[in-house]
Amino acid sequence: MGIEVGGLLGLIWLVIVVWAIIKVAKSSAGGLAKLLWILVLLFFPLVGLIIWFLLGPKG
């Protein structure tokens, strides 16, 4: 049962990170800012997502 729950949580986390990357890509931020945010989200998923929610590009 633990593997199934962990797999489901991992899938949900992956969906959230992919959603955040798509939101960054569609934002009005400059190209370099978008690239940096996407790299932060990919290499530091937990911390990057929290920082993105607080400080990331809006819109």
TrEMBL record:
Pfam families documented for this protein: PLDc_N
Protein name: PLDc N-terminal domain-containing protein
UniProt source species: Vreelandella gomseomensis
Keywords: Cell membrane, Membrane, Transmembrane, Transmembrane helix
Location within or outside the cell: Cell membrane
TM spans (from-to): 6-24, 36-55
Cardiolipin synthase N-terminal domain segment(s): 15-57
Keyword Transmembrane helix in record: yes
Membrane topology: Multi-pass membrane protein
UniProt keyword annotation of Metal-binding present: no
